[in-house]
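request received
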Amino acid sequence: MRDWDLVIDNVHLATMEQGYGELPGAAIAVKDGRIAWFGPADELPASGALRIDGEQCWLTPGLIDCHTHIVHAGQRSDEFEARLNGASYEDISRAGGGIAATVRATRAASEAELLRQSLPRVLALLAEGVTTLEIKSGYGLELESEAKMLRVARAIGERCPVTVRATFLGAHALPPEYAGRPDDYIDLVCGQMLPAIASAGLADAVDAFCEHIGFTPAQTRRVFEAAKALGLPVKLHAEQLSDQGGAVLVAKFDGLSADHLEFLSDDGVAAMARHGTVAVLLPGACYFLRETQPPPIAALRAAGVPMAVSTDCNPGTSPMTSLLLAMNMACTLWRLTPQEALAGATVIAARALGLQHDRGSLAVGKRADFALWRIARPADLAYAIGFNPCAGVVHGGVWRAPVVSLPD
Ligand code: DI6
Ligand code: FE
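response:
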């Protein structure tokens, strides 16, 4: 007689182990926060302390948003308006707007205020079945403000039913006090900020923005070397606005992922394939900037580079809090299949965070993070626009109705 903590029956499973991994008419059992059993509902060998009727919903792994800047203060609709009046993202950035505007607001906000402003965005993701969330720093650009952002990221993971992976993005932009001295700022990032953030346990990975309005490949390499010396995995904002060779660089460091990639070269594709670097696709930023160059999806697919899909939630280039919409955009803008888009927000997104052994698909022993959906077929998740069919979430084995309210 097995005693499970939770059984959900009368569901259709999409395990995401191979393709959708469809298993209609199934049940799934949870013990100690892990998947203990799943299979045809009529073969369910025992019951559990809590039994939930899945009402013919589809049950997928909880969604994973693997690239966000969701912790920030203020917003930038003024720049949205300026761009619609003819300014480019680079013009705005060079004139002291762009990332620098969010840096000013984020530095000025108290830790409590930063949390207060960030929570509604997080809740929008959770209401759509997100159970794991990556959050970057990068709007502080000095030690105390970067640490403040990362503490807020940790606080979100403690207060909300979501696992947070925090990423140190100190090399996101040049802070105004270092204007004209990017190498001195990189000295600060590598020599002081990174060691302090690492020893406080505030970061799970390190990212940088390798771009002509960000940092050079040589500066990025220094950040990666410092991260590696501290035992932290790396990832990179690469080839978003131009080809800087960032994907080759991050692949050489066995990075978790190269993200954006609209201007990725054949060499970049080959290097990522060789090193198993995940391509994180961010269609929200492409859409919002009205970028016309798509990432080389067919080449990535042909080379076997795993593709994740994420919101890039940030105030400047992707003010988007819907991972389902990002999935739809990846299909409509870039021709991912709905199956690839769902894999990109589950099993491949887990890989982009180095969590593939623990979550991202339904397998016995993996963490019991599920989303239940009132849909007819798994493809519906990428198909509908602006519709949220999430009927419930299990996070670490704990059942919840869709999260719609602020935590205390
Ligand atoms: N690329 C992006 O899309 C975001 N950061 C980055 O390096 C934009 C951040 C912002 O504009 O606030
Ligand atoms: Fe980003």
